[in-house]
Design goal:
This is Malonyl-CoA:ACP transacylase (MAT) domain-containing protein. The protein is an alpha/beta fold. The chain contains 14 helices and 16 strands. Strand 15 (376-380), helix 14 and strand 16 (399-402) form a beta-alpha-beta unit. Helix 2 (123-136) packs antiparallel against helix 5 (155-175).
Amino acid sequence: MHALPLHRELANLIFCLSPSSSISKMSSITLPAVTVRKISSHASDSFKSCNSSSFTGSRHGIRIRSFSSEKLDKSKFSMSVSLGSRTAVDDALFSDYKPSCAFLFPGQGAQAVGMGMEGQNVPAAANLYKKANDILGFDLLDVCINGPKEKLNSTVLSQPAIYVTSLAAVEVLRARDGGQQIIDSVDVTCGLSLGEYTALAFAGAFSFEDGLKLVKLRGEAMQEAADAAKSAMVSVIGLDSEKVQLLCDAANQEVDEENKVQIANFLCPGNYAVSGGVKGVEVLEAKAKSFKARMTVRLAVAGAFHTHFMEPAVSRLEAALAATQVKTPRIPVISNVDAQPHADPNTIKKILALQVTSPVQWETTVNNLLSKGLNKSYELGPGKVIAGIVKRMNKSADIENIGA
């Protein structure tokens, strides 16, 4: 597998990201009536989920509990605590996950005119587009296949398009010889920004339909937030993260508070996306060479994703998430916010709300998967951006693309 040329990867990559939030840990509380339930590790339906639960917490400052009791096989057991009519799930249920096979889902920027065409030969994949048309109120497949490019690239359309096409790719794989066995063997999943929603749908945290409704609203809310402020994103190539931070610090000394910049996407070594006010981004671009950056590439996005500029989108997303049924995923889903898997449904909701304004920790996520012994991974959906990133981080990594 050959990674995409760096400039092509950057040109195609658009991120949907949020201000970094400190996530504190607290010890797990001992509660009565502990129930351990076994979950089949070979679910026949990729959208099957384990159980539902509830949990209370605050939006800013999510508290993640450490789990210190006897270690269990996290991929096969779910621990819940009955509290009258409520059921609380230990959020650290998947903390000791040991990945062997992963599904990785792309984010905004992977879209390309013509995607979705292969999936029309698979009834289950084609049906996802029909369901999407009913939810979105327009012919999504027509935009995916015929464009125009400018329309498909818009935030409000590209996010639903990538979500549906990525899950259609799962059905394309399922229809192949041995495809169901591969799906059954997946024991961890994650996605780049928008792709986190796709990963959660695959893992059964919410239905395809509910996930699409969330993605639709997310794209609309992010576009509106971007329209309300003059902001931008730029990729800095050839520097490590510490030097990119120093570059941001230098730029921030010359602009006011409204134009400050920050690292918004920790993509992979030598490739980090910076978001902020337009003036701050321009100052950063002017200073990049003096910091020995190889180049900067302005990203064709609506605004400063994954920063405080997206704060207006958070309340709308929180309201939609509060009204959505979210279940404990059947396998670990790695969060973009802290590069950790979460089991508690309410924590997952809070993480998704924070994600839109927090830096994406993709580099840490991939490093964790590889260091924990990941043997095989699949990129499902349009493009090959994720495969390029993984191969850049580990040339010997075994990753395969499944398109639709």
